[in-house]
Amino acid sequence: MKFWNIRTKISVTLIAIAFFAINGRAKASNQIIAGWHDFNDGWQLYRDSGSSKSADEFLTGISATLYGGDGTRDAWGSTDGTYGISNVVETSATDGAMSHRTDKPNIYLTLVNNTGSDAVLEQVVFDLASVSLNAPQELILYYDSGDLAVADDTQINSAAGVNSNGLANVSDYQDYNWSLSGLADQTLASGETAAFRLFVTNANNNFQALALDNIAVLGQGTPGDLLLAAMAALKNHITGANTLTTAQIKTQAGIFATYADEVGDSETNIVQALDLVETYESVAGYLFNTGEFSRTDASTPAKALRLAMFDVYQAILDDVYNASNLVAHRSLLDNYKFESSDYFPGAVTPPADSNAVYSVQINASQPEAWGYEVSFQFEAARRPTGAYLAPGSIATVTVPTALVGQGYEIRVGAHVADLKNRPNNYKRLNRVSLTYPINSTTVEIASPFGGGIYIEVPYGIEERLATVEFKNTVRAPFYSNSSTRQTTLSEWQNAERSHPGAWADFETDKFMLTVPTDWIYAYDDPVTLMADWDKAMDACSDMQGLPRVRPKTVLYCIIDVTLDANVFSPGYPQSNDNYNPTSSAGGNKDHDYLNGPKFAGYHHLHEFGHAAYITKFTGELESAVNLFYVPVHHRMFNVSLDEAFGRSIGDYGSRTIGRDQAALGWILSENFQTGYPMDGTSTTNNQMKYQHRGYGKYVDIAGIFGWDALSNFWHSVAVDAENGKTYPRNTDPADSRILRMSKAAGVDLTPLIHFWGIHPVNASNLKAAINAEGLPKSALIYDRLVRYQTVVPMDAAGFEAHYQKYKSGIKQNTEGDRYEAMRTDWNATLGALTVSRVQEIIDEYFPNGRPAAGEVQSLPYAESFETDLGAWVQSVADDFDWTLNGGYTDTTNTGPSGASDGGQYLYLEGHDNGVQYKTASVECLFDLSAVDHAELTFDYHMYGEYIDYLSVDVFDGATWTFDVWIRTNQHHFSSEAAWSNAVVDLTAFVGNDEVTLRFRGKQKQWHTADTAIDNITVTGAVYTPFEQWTVTAFSNAPPGTDLTASGNPDGDRFNNEHEWALVLDPMVGDRPAMNMIFDDPNFIVTYNRRLNSGISVSASWSDSLVDADWSTAGMIEVSIGQNGDVETMAAIVSFSGTNRFVRMEVQ
């Protein structure tokens, strides 16, 4: 057996080490301490110290190099397969030799002992041949220098006449074994260096050479520990005790990497690893002292060493810092810190009082989640504490007994992402976070990096709170507005944001954020920030059909030095933005996370969409996930539906891609034109991936039927999951999904989904299932498809207008050329053909034309929009939507200050919505078939310089009548101005059982145009004709009574027709026909009149009873009640003189 390490054969190394352990680590003579035989790498290599060759075979723990002469000759070599006379070389192949000439007379062999024990050097051996007789005639061996107790340049041995061989190319070279017994000291102690020099002289031609191969130093030695030897070699290089070449550093780094997981296995290993880092930091500076660096560039010794030290740092963190080592080697780890912690995660000073106690209450529960699975659902929930561990400190954490042995952990450092597979530069260690299990009520924690301290709560823990105490920690900024802890704005501004911990946490029950303290120490308002993020999370949860408050936060975001993956990705925490630790933000960073979801890029919610695990049609994997952005901005931040849709891919650069443009992007495609579905394949032809048209169907459903239609659908998926029924997440079967979506919306969605490129698989079966559920056709879907026909460009100019709005959404690699051709060739014929393609879908699903619109409302009807839009629906034949609001609108100098009735009203929000010169409409369906008279009343507020108009339109089932009522421009001049009331006569439309009323508003070129409506009523009356009235009025009249209109059986001043019109009794004399009271200084006169009688009834006043004096000036006449076709009127007449007369006039 050979007791050496073959560098490329680790298994041999392990066998050798095991052998020595079993045999008391005995030494054997003539071991190969270091040997070189492979010189086949090229021509003239290893000629100087900067390019020396490491030993091919060596005793474990020995570092050895060779260089000099005229370098290698790869065509030469000895064939005997031994070092010197008998020691076998690991291969007998001819693999080159060293060229040794008198113009370059020295070849150096250097050995460093890192075995941990002494090595005895017994022989220097080699194989030798000459090129010719003109080669050097004499070869001398010297002890050159080092730590042996031998004088430098001591000659050891020599040989003359070595030029006679002449067989240098390929042959069995002559073997030389030169003893070192003549040296006064042959023992190379651990840590010592010895260098030998082979010198040639006396050549007839300086350019003729000797060939040396299979060079070795033999002796006795105990194989050392590879890991310790590698660390010692790296340290000796750093200190200059034994400088290594780039290749040698790589070799030692490779050895260390192989055994890195043993660093924490013994105190010796730990001591040497910690010492190596301290040595490096004292000589070269801390690891990231110049910032990030390449993962692969080891082209110089300094760069190779930095990469090697990266592995040492990582091994210490991974293998040394754990609960058992903290107990066994506490003294070693106490106050030990990485100086690179100043770079990341940040410099933090230990607490002044290590015994001070900080306590915090946390939510120590994570019950099982309801509904379908979402990403990271089963991972531990992270609970921030506001405590921070300074680098090098050992802190004590005290927890309640209920947390012990239940799977809870204490985490130090928030950054859990492992960056080992990232292709870019090293910007921090791959792993920087540590966990300590809670197996006792007191747990000690430590980290050479330090970091924020969190309690990791395992999945499935039912409701509980826990108070946790920390000793020897510092505080970190911590804002919380959760059910467990509430931070006031004053506490934040006056204390929390100033704490010294390097990272800050923000937390609600729904959203969590971790950012550098450097970003927030001057940040003023986390209250609004977290409230906005909560709104965003609510919109997401609502659409998912899941509870707003979950077992862990809906989304957790963190900033890091780089992305977690090669691209944006979901995560818990989710990290899709980076920062530079060497750059200061000055305490108030301009960043998406701190600006809030109103202003954040779409990619945050895109990646959240992946984690949300909503079911999808096949092909929608990278499209449906963009949908979450839309309700967040539309529902919660009053962005128009179309702009929110546009920005949901591409942010503001795509704001012009609303539903119309996305629909055009689809119907102008070759697939639509030829009747094929939208391509959702995993090919370059995919028409859904990262494209608005891929999820336009969902936005259309929300725009037509409200977001509840989608929320109800995914809620049904959650209910099914609770009952054991699940659906393929990314390949939900089309027909089943269309049916379930239709049930959630309450109408047949097939036409709309078909239009957007998802065709039924079995159309007849799906139709039968839709009919079996009683799901009606939708007039709103019909209108929407008709609208898409109207936006088809009919000439090149119209196409260019579409192109300019949609160009950021064009898939250039497959449709770019097609679009360019259409820009030139588009004409009315192509436009008409495209319209006909849409018509084919309309005809397929609506063979009888437009169906009735919405649920019919009966009379009387009232709506004040206190919770939602009630029966009113957003029109699809418009440009943007009405908005529900209370109080002032978001735009100054426009809109009301509050509702006219109750707390909410409906208005047009134009601010930042890109809706200049655009209209918005809401409509509702009414049954007017059972009334003879109908009337719409509503309150309106039109304050805003750029209001265009507000109108009421009526659809009788066949034709729209526009502007039945209209007001243009602003009619109010402050937000506080009183609302106005409008009355609209609908009598022209009575007798129809489906009448659609529509409010339509438009703004001009700017956003101060917030028209509002509220307090809507629709009433109707059934008239009593004169002939029908007489049957009741004269039911007890004696025979012969005059029942005609001109008859007057009671003999008063009113004939029968007047009695009918004034709602009097024709059999009793009525004097007077009105009632009067005096309420100083007014007379109040009340009377009844029958509507639609054809007779005018009104009041007037006079002070003289002279006909010319009768007047209505200053008189107020109002309706104070109505019962059917009978209206009660009140006339209010002021009185200031001695006489005033009031009369009722019937004509």
From TrEMBL:
Signal peptide: 1-28
Keyword hit for Ligase: no
Domain named Peptidase M60: residues: 380-677
Sections of the chain in a coiled coil: none
CC annotations in GO: membrane
MAM domain residues: 861-1019
Keywords: Signal
Top-level taxon of origin: Bacteria
Official protein name in the record: Peptidase M60 domain-containing protein
Lineage, highest ranks first: Bacteria, Pseudomonadati, Kiritimatiellota, Kiritimatiellia, Kiritimatiellales
